[in-house]
Amino acid sequence: MPIRLAAAALLGLEAFGILALAGWQVVALIGGDTDSVASSIALIVLTVIGAAIVGAFGVGTARDASAARSGGIVTQLLILSVAIGAVTGEWAAPTVALLIALPAVVGLVLLVLAVRRAAPRRRDHD
Question: What is the CA radius of gyration of the chain?
């Protein structure tokens, strides 16, 4: 399996995970575990949009689109920043941070390798 397809598959799994997060937010909204209904609905909509964008990065990466790989790299960096936030602060959760960071690191490595493979070969002229 080419590296880009592995990276695309991981982006697809991450998009599915983001959709699962949106589902969790819907359950919290229905269960009355929110302070503001309007803010909760807005957050759900933005989460679904984010999942669609990450899914589009996955499809684009599978199709070998440079912009999709770049978007995927930015996504992995954003996920790593969430993991860093999960390991710091008053309610730090190192295990959760590791579970968030591990796929992001793997995705980042796969995407960088996919970029390297897609780059045209250079001839060094001495």
Answer: 17
Q: Which long-range contacts (CB under 8 A, 24 or more apart) does 90-98 make?
A: none
8 burial level (CB within 10 Å; 0-12, 13-18, 19+): buried
Please report which helix (H) or strand (E) contains residue 88, including its range. none
- Distance, CA of 2 to CA of 78 (rounded, Å): 25
User: Measured between alpha carbons, how far is 63 from 73 in angstroms, rounded to an integer?
Assistant: 16
Tens of pLDDT along 47-75? 999 999 999 999 999 999 999 999 999 99
Q: Pull the structure tokens for residue 73.
A: 């790299």
End-to-end CA distance of the chain: 36
- Cα–Cα dist 53/48, whole Å: 9
Pair of tokens at residue 95? 């295990």
Q: In whole angstroms, what is the distance from residue 10 CA to residue 3 CA?
A: 11
pLDDT of residue 119: 80
Question: What pLDDT, in 10s, does the model give residues 72-123?
Answer: 999 999 999 999 999 998 889 999 999 999 999 999 999 999 999 888 766 6
Q: Which amino acid is at 96?
A: V
